[in-house]
Amino acid sequence: MARIAIVGGTGYTGVELLRLLAAHEAAEVVAITSRAEAGRRVDDLYPNLRGFYDLAFTEPDDKLLAECDVVFFATPHNVAMQSVPGLLAAGARVIDLSADYRVRDAQLWSRWYGEPHTSADLLQQAVYGLPEANRERIRDAQLVACPGCYPTSILLGLKPLLANDLVDSQHLIASAASGASGAGRQAKIDNLLTEVDGSFKAYGVGGHRHLPEIEQELALFAGHPVQLTFVPHLLPMVRGIHATLFATLTDAHRDLQALYEETYADEPFVDVLPAGMFPQTRTVRGANRCQISLQVPQGRDTVVVMSTIDNLVKGASGQAIQNMNIMLGLPETMGLDQVALLP
Amino acid sequence: MARIAIVGGTGYTGVELLRLLAAHEAAEVVAITSRAEAGRRVDDLYPNLRGFYDLAFTEPDDKLLAECDVVFFATPHNVAMQSVPGLLAAGARVIDLSADYRVRDAQLWSRWYGEPHTSADLLQQAVYGLPEANRERIRDAQLVACPGCYPTSILLGLKPLLANDLVDSQHLIASAASGASGAGRQAKIDNLLTEVDGSFKAYGVGGHRHLPEIEQELALFAGHPVQLTFVPHLLPMVRGIHATLFATLTDAHRDLQALYEETYADEPFVDVLPAGMFPQTRTVRGANRCQISLQVPQGRDTVVVMSTIDNLVKGASGQAIQNMNIMLGLPETMGLDQVALLP
Amino acid sequence: MARIAIVGGTGYTGVELLRLLAAHEAAEVVAITSRAEAGRRVDDLYPNLRGFYDLAFTEPDDKLLAECDVVFFATPHNVAMQSVPGLLAAGARVIDLSADYRVRDAQLWSRWYGEPHTSADLLQQAVYGLPEANRERIRDAQLVACPGCYPTSILLGLKPLLANDLVDSQHLIASAASGASGAGRQAKIDNLLTEVDGSFKAYGVGGHRHLPEIEQELALFAGHPVQLTFVPHLLPMVRGIHATLFATLTDAHRDLQALYEETYADEPFVDVLPAGMFPQTRTVRGANRCQISLQVPQGRDTVVVMSTIDNLVKGASGQAIQNMNIMLGLPETMGLDQVALLP
Amino acid sequence: MARIAIVGGTGYTGVELLRLLAAHEAAEVVAITSRAEAGRRVDDLYPNLRGFYDLAFTEPDDKLLAECDVVFFATPHNVAMQSVPGLLAAGARVIDLSADYRVRDAQLWSRWYGEPHTSADLLQQAVYGLPEANRERIRDAQLVACPGCYPTSILLGLKPLLANDLVDSQHLIASAASGASGAGRQAKIDNLLTEVDGSFKAYGVGGHRHLPEIEQELALFAGHPVQLTFVPHLLPMVRGIHATLFATLTDAHRDLQALYEETYADEPFVDVLPAGMFPQTRTVRGANRCQISLQVPQGRDTVVVMSTIDNLVKGASGQAIQNMNIMLGLPETMGLDQVALLP
Fold first, then answer.
1. Which segments constitute the Semialdehyde dehydrogenase NAD-binding domain (chains A, B, C, D) (predicted)?
2. What is the pLDDT of residue C83?
């Protein structure tokens, strides 16, 4: 059994790691840290875990973390980059679910996150943990930067178009919507049920922090810089991301349905839907899966791609475990075969 | 007091007309028809109306309808066009909330609605009831075709750009989302709470019936045909439409915020938000109001316009009453000064 | 026009007072205070108010408050009791929406609210602002303690039974449920959409702060002390309270439907539904109304009463305005004739 | 591998059986029937099942069903009783999730379900499938009547009190609330999102069809007839039942917390929460688990028990599989170890 530690486990990606790892045959959570909740049993905070874990939150302890096979950081940004250099030096392997190591350009990172990057030398070494793009490099990585939730849905949705040079890469559009769990478990008025329920809005229209990592990875698909207009929206619900992607086709003759099916034929967690079936967030709820479909309305020159994930699973904790499986040489799907909860 | 009749009053636009007209000083509902519920009191079906109406649904009776000052059709498509020719001949004035008279080209209508138009000769006479575009023609109209909910939000959002020739009109994009009341009060599995709640999806991506009326009216703004890619989505909530509109700027130097504020300065029901404030559907819930804001992310050449209405008010029944006020020479805002219900 | 001030206007009862008073013909809000938001326009915080108020939050200023005709306190408990003594001395009339003056026994208040009552001498003078029980005393009151949301629904539901000595008053049961807006607009993790949506739970089962005021007022109906088991629940929605009340009948022969209809025949805001129709929170959403129905299942000796209000209207701000109307000698229904928003 | 058939698999209990059985090591679904959807792939109707089943709905075929090891009926009432006699005669073992065999008295059944019972002779043979009450009899049963969702939560909540004669059994009260999936996947206006969302109501107050089976089983716990006032409510959410149970204590000295913990100490799917922790429906969402807590407010003589299940799991399909495990001699928990999905 691989020994697993989770740093910052009180948030939703933390409890989701615990839910998924409870069913994992080859990994065992031996430590979960939280300064705020140290000493409290995890099943007192999260009663859905009663009977599955006999574990309490502890103060962070780098020495103990370094003895684990894999350390997950389920922390806000700016936390992992304080501890990761030491852990790597001590030989640990780290999967960071936060934004700290996703952007390779430290200056760009600083501009979007509003503070200096204290561990910039590791940015080139970190592997962007999207297995469908970087599987081989993840295998041997010591530090994996797990993608954000919006990026995962958008990158998987646009990859076939950009990798095959089929669209105008300077006018890509992503109109995406997220359930409120994407904002984490933080005491903010904006995220109260009374503020979010029964309503819908765009936010961060001037610039969302996920934009730089999305454009960075899209550029790798395209082989050159791209421009994306990214508008996130907040949904009155808990889980799920739905990205509606628009691009102007430069090649009208390609069979896009076939292209998408071929691209993802061997991917266990990307499901290209049959033509005419559109994804819903609920059909991936709780599952480590991205469902994608596409359409060219009225046979014009704009292609619409719809891409759906559960932001806490394929958009965070499930993807982190997928990365862990690859890093540990385990079957990539181990512990990730949950059927989505519907209705 | 103007005498008002409502045909097909059991749906959500019907009860919303009743809610709004209960507060109208110069109009009185004297008849409301429904074949299915004839004989039943309206406040038995809709207990929120108890104490406000002493009225029961009746069988449709064209003679009685013709004696009213204004007849609202709150019916599914294909109903109004059966009765309207006779009512107009009898001198009635009609406001049709359905789709029957919105598209001026009968063949185009038939292609999208799947049946012949039985009253095509009235299509040229009907006025598209968007006061912000056609106020003068509405004043004397005998037949007003009240716009659909998606069209209202999209048309008001794009008008300033097209009327001033500022964007590529052949690649307009509308990523719009609607609350479930847009689908009406019909017994369909797809609209059950268990199917819609906690989930989000696109639908009608290959072509939604609101597309032809939107492109028709956008073309009038632009002075030439336009092409719009329109993707509607279903929100897990009751009321509200949010349209996120994208267009490529052909003129980068125009002050768009000022343009929008000037365009709508005298419009009582269009509220251009200050720069940096984005609309939410809840801030217009229950109110006859469209709130709009815009942004040019990263100073590139794509403009994003966000436009929000309550689909049952400015997107249907409120707009119908706004049209009625204009037709009757009443103050346009009469009975339409509700503050949105928040939270 | 009566000059109105609102103290602590940033919460949901504050914005609801503003929404309702915007339509009031004889009252004008001249001041609204908030330490946290002083200087900010109210329509910047609450964009649904754009166009209705040209008003900004100000620092509290007792001198200015004392010049108003009525001062509403829309504050958490323990705030009003600091300022009210001074305001009363200066001649102001106060309607307190908080809990500070609802319980006549200062020691009892202190036990439930965990701090000493600093204005205990006013407790006997304060009138409990449930017009359906205390209309005459409210008329001349200088200080009205507006009831809580649970109490309003429960008191109106049980009054006819207790006032007519028809049930075992020592084993009353209230199983009540509230929308999340009852918890106010505070940054607490427990009230996040992600914590509340899609779930249901009881809370405060060991003792909720509304219990003492409910038992106090029920005892006045009964003429002797009563015992109530009160279990509140949190609903995954914004507005509405539904109380399901159970009592053992001691008199099986009384026509309870008739009794309820007679009791509330002249009450403009209490609507006893016809036998067999049950209330829903949505049929009173946004309206100052309590809808009640009752049933004796299987003809046994347990009566079930269902009582529904909008917690922010008849359970708070609407009731406060109803009290204001009575105090100012205005028609009791002035500004309170909104039709509930349905769907 | 046990060969499993599901009759009437298009509803929510059907898809839930498929979700749970996908993870079951010793059972395989070989047939799923539906007249309406015969020929359609199950993963076309339920895209969450893509990749898990290569199966289409078929017309019912009693011969094929009889060859299976276990046949689940996930049908509306009045369907199973047409086919079950033949299947039993052919040697099949049946688990009926509908109401057809839950009430032992055929006349009582007919009174509540409004039609004659066509298979009354099997009522005595059928075992009420609540393993926590009837485990031994289930083991060898040929026909198991799986309890309804409300009954499961109420029976488990009240069993310790009645079995130990601690309360007034003639004045039991159950104020229970269910998510909308309890009403099934049927095209009814009452269950539209627009009718249910953002609202709460009681229903069936005069008498709900689950009452006779609840009183029947409670009487078995008590050893004599009981009287229960049962008021169900509809929650604006998809999954979950929460029963709030009230009873008057006749013995004030018993340690009820200890009693409950002892009663359920060996039950794998009943979790008595620590004193002071109250259950939430979300902490059992998707899990085959009942969480229970209790309280005696203000130390008076009324005990409040809260009991929560997922109506589609422990209230239907999960419980059915638990019964199947017992009948097949498998570990009772096999395939039922899902962690609840939270948030």
1. 3-141
2. 95
**Which residue numbers of C are catalytic?**
149
CB contact under 8 A, B185 and D186: no
Rounded to two decimals, what is the model's pTM? 0.98
Q: Are A286 and A338 in contact (CB under 8 A)?
A: yes
Which chain C residues touch A if contact means CB-CB below 8 Å?
Answer: 12, 180-181, 183, 185-189, 191-198, 236-238
- The answer to the question of residue A36 being in a domain is yes
- CATH code for the domain of B243: 3.30.360.10
Which residues of D are catalytic, by number?
149
pLDDT, tens digit, for every residue of D295-333? 999 999 999 999 999 999 999 999 999 999 999 999 999
> Tokens at residue A39, please?
């000493």
Residue C307 predicted with pLDDT over 90: yes
How many Å lie between the alpha carbon of C154 and the closest alpha carbon of chain A? 23
Which secondary structure element, helix H or strand E, spans residue A185, and what is its range?
none
B162 in the same domain as B132: no
Task: Look up the domain containing A102 and give its range.
Answer: 2-147+314-327
Averaged over B64-84, what is the pLDDT? 96
Same domain, A135 and A239: no
Whether residues C339 and B23 touch (CB distance < 8 A) is answered with: yes
Structurally, how many domains does chain D consist of?
2
Could you tell me the strand order of the sheet in which C201-202 lies? C201-202, C228-234, C172-178, C241-248, C302-309, C290-295, C270-272
pLDDT band (50, 70, 90) for residue B252: confident
What is the count of residue pairs from A and D with beta carbons less than 8 Å apart? Answer: 86
Q: Residues B197, D192: contact at Cβ < 8 Å?
A: no
- List residues bridging with C302 in a β-sheet: C248
pLDDT of C252 reads 84
Positions of chain D with pLDDT lower than 70, given as ranges: none
- Residue D266: count of CB within 10 angstroms of its CB: 8
C221 CB neighbour count, 10 Å cutoff: 19
Smallest CA–CA distance, residue B277 to chain A, in Å, is 9
Which residues in chain D touch residue C235, judged by CB atoms under 8 angstroms apart?
Answer: 200, 235-236
Are A229 and B177 within 8 A, CB to CB?
A: no
pLDDT tens for each residue of A51-79 = 999 999 999 999 999 999 999 999 999 99
Q: Which of C200, C207, C298 sits opposite D242 (nearest CB)?
A: C200
The pLDDT value given to residue A22: 97
Is position C15 within any domain? yes
